[in-house]
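Batch job 17 of 40 flagged for manual review because the log was empty.
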Amino acid sequence: MSFLKLGLSKELANQVSKQNYKKPTPVQNEAIPNILLGIDLLAVAKTGSGKTAAFVLPLLQLLEKPKKKKTRFIRSLILSPTRELAEQLKGVIEQFTDNLAYKINTMAVYGGVSINPQMQKLSNVDILVATPGRLLDLLEQNAVHLSETEVLILDEADKMLNKAFEEEMGKILSFLPKKRQNLLFSATFSEKIEKISSTILSKPTVVRIKEEENNIDLITQKAYLVKAENKGPFLRKLINENDFKQILIFVSSTRTADNLVQKLNKNGISSHAIHSKKSQAARTEALRRFKQGNINVLVATDLLARGIDIDFLPCVINYELPRSPKDYVHRIGRTGRAENAGKAISLITKDDAHHFKIIQKKMKKQVETVKVEQKPKQ
């Protein structure tokens, strides 16, 4: 099916073609026509399935109808869990709006940077992409108004399911009009997603794209069983012995990320960390340099890595395993994209062994595991 047959205008379909979208993905096939009808929607589809375009494209068509708006009144609000994702969303929207005949203004707001420049720019914005905390700051200072918002979108909702978010969401909803369209997109489905959808959505259409065998056939997976005290030296040995141009390393905490980067840099391996305790400027710069190939290694926590989207990333390393098997698949899925081969390496300690067996069972794939007998010389 073509994008035109989904109900998109010829102008938007042309924009899609310019971005080299060949045909709609399953979630786009299901979501776009329903969103264009103006109904509420809950869409569950894995990361990398085309969810962003599934709501951005119909949103742009809905906003095509001119509406006399006041200066600081937002027509559409997109809530994002992280600053990186907010910027990434803004970038996707601007890709599609650059050459439209009608003007759509988009802005991303988030914490970690000065609020004053954001307040000054919040005029005549059609689509506001925001992290919840910064949005509340702006609302409390009357820098932005949501009383005329037509569409509310929660992106990556499964990454916002904590107590703090529930409290923030309740406050944000109090600023929104009761009559509006609500869209909730998530990579996973859970009781919490069901609960939040029942709070926000009204008689929604539910789109659940069944996960096919995760597209990991192009990814060569390998695990090394190492002693905990040998993980750092062995990681450096792996990096030095392989000609990886870019390596994304996953860890479980900000403290581990910083310690690991310090060790890597000390041993001549150019590395940067990206996590929630870094300033926004530092995070943006690290991500930019990594994407451009100016640094070889980026160490990230799971939440921040959602904003890292590189088609030709050659290697992912799990320095520490994630808690969830689904998160493991999301991690390694950062490589082997766009039909390109990739490598995924996991460092497993004795304490990790049982959990790694569960991950393999859930993934329905056996991973070659090599036992490292001794501490590598470094």
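Reviewer: the log was empty due to a logging misconfiguration, but the result itself is present. The mean pLDDT is 87. Unflagging and moving on to job 18.
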